[in-house]
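I keep forgetting this: the sequence line spells out the residues, with the fold written below as integer tokens. I include a record here:
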Amino acid sequence: MLLTVDVGNTQTVVGVYAGAELASMWRLATDRACTPDEIRVNLIPLFQSAGLSFPEVRRAALSSVVPQLTDAWREAVRACIGVDVLVCSAQTAGELFSADYPNPSEIGADRVADAVAMKALYGCPSVVVDFGTATNIEVIDARGCFVGGIIAPGLQTSAQTLFSRGAQLHAVALDAPREVIGKNTVEAMQSGLVLGEVDRVEGLLRRVFDQLGYEAVVVATGGLAPLIAAHSELISHVNPQLTLEGLRLISQRAANGS
């Protein structure tokens, strides 16, 4: 079995693969102060709830955008299953990841994993929209090269800023209203936040297509992907485990000695 971990700024996604099949997946709040011992203690009940045991896991792969947690997860996994973690990067992805980019080493691990999974699952050209703390748009062109992307504040990040800065604006559920013109403050805020995110992403995607000179398949991932994709004309697929799938493919490449 393979343990895959995607450490994001807000959430950490943990998955266990049995071969090519994702056997279990969990979303956890990212705690930047978490120690290796705390990570290990948190993993134990997750494995138990799924009927899994640490000795079944033979390999592990990690994507992290939180540097202070990278070593903590490596140490925790080594203590749990006794193996070194493969840390995702443009270098460890090898030939699975090609980039037309001035400095590939600065590309985030999650962006690398997403690009690897996109090429394998959806072909080229393709675009990933990752709805997390930031809304990231990653572009793979018709040659299969990662050519760059767009980073914008995420929906929850924008919402939290609005709630904290607006004296008379209280937190609302992130749901799409029935109509774009809100009939009360809650509906007006939901329209601006949710439908505004849909239109922002679609406007950026159209600009991406214009620059490429052709359209591409668009896949959404991240916790809020289903909400936005339901109202988008350009997002054709939602894949919550896209990053984990990229980690699986990179780990498989390493295991095969490629």
